[in-house]
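Hi team,

Below is the intake form for Gamma-glutamylputrescine oxidoreductase from Pseudomonas putida. Please confirm the fields before the structure is written into the shared record.

FORM ID: S-0412
PROTEIN: Gamma-glutamylputrescine oxidoreductase
ORGANISM: Pseudomonas putida
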Amino acid sequence: MANTPYPQSYYAASANPVPPRPALQGEVETDVCIIGAGYTGLSSALFLLENGFKVSIVEAAKVGFGASGRNGGQIVNSYSRDIDVIERTVGPKEAQLLGHMAFEGGRIIRERVAKYNIQCDLKDGGVFAALTSKQMGHLESQKRLWERFGHNQLELMDQKRIREVVACDSYIGGMLDMSGGHIHPLNLALGEAAAVESLGGIIYEQTPAVRIERGANPVVHTPQGKVRAKFVIVAGNAYLGNLVPELAAKSMPCGTQVITTEPLGEELARTLLPQDYCVEDCNYLLDYYRLTSDKRLIFGGGVVYGARDPANIEAIIRPKMLKAFPQLKNVKIDYAWTGNFLLTLSRLPQVGRIGDNIYYSQGCSGHGVTYTHLAGKVLAEALRGQAERFDAFAGLPHYPFPGGQMLRVPFSAIGAWYYSLRDRLGF
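The structure came back. Fields below:
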């Protein structure tokens, strides 16, 4: 069987060493078979193992191969649509539950890092940067909204204050969230995988799920084996393909592009981001950036609908980086890569159950680092019979893309063009 390596990213080049994990050969039995060894799958596995379940994970490529090992590495609270939108959609009672969960993912990451001694360059502090007074007004209301749900580690920043934390002249203000932060995302996934194995969980790499045999005892079929289980958790997200057709209809893989500079040196790095916070702007199609532990700048942005790999990533992202930091015009780009995330029409995650024993979570819509860790806990609770929090997510309404899978790419691209035009015109 073909061996799928990691993409040539900065994260793969600086990953902590890991043991080889063989593909599944033959037949195994387990309590829970998880499809996908990204954050959703690994988080689910850890919570289940800690509660006495027997767990096997099948992964089509390698641990953290998808979005979990390629993202911007930013710990950002809440969901891609904020709690006020959820409140208008489902009413105050369910929104209350979802609102209190909106800040749990970041806490789970920090607990995992501490408990299992995961080496992933965890740093505290994330900045939302406003380019217009309208965006600043949105941050002011976002602070009030988050504080309603007990989230108090927030500071509004005026133009002078934001200059102290990021050397970019474009911003008129912002908001600092000290419970935000950043990590080396692939090393977080690899550390979580080691924790899974330390508790007796088994991870099979290079083992794609090719078919789920549904029934009282579901069976996950792979090219050279099968896993018989009491429960299946589908955690493939943007890399699931058409394994579960009813999930594919309501979501769309999208690509985001990331570049990493050569090492900048301590002095230059410190002038850009003196406190080593990560930053994202408030545009609909946002830019995001941060420093690495070896003082490179990681800069990402843009969306490719339908997840095609653009020919020249550096040509797309470098101009965005230079707009923020013209002082980097002579700096070399060492790595450029793309990775897919899964977009839903509502931009809210899709959580649910198919039949009695196949559970899923997908569609973080670009807000995956924290949400996936929460999702693992919520899925594990549901398998243990505590479904209140699971049901709150499962009750969110979801819709297929207009025109089905064929038209979802142009439809979304038109929507994004409209919103990015609004960003540029300052509406």
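SUMMARY LINE: DSSP finds 14 helices and 17 strands in the chain.

Thanks, M.
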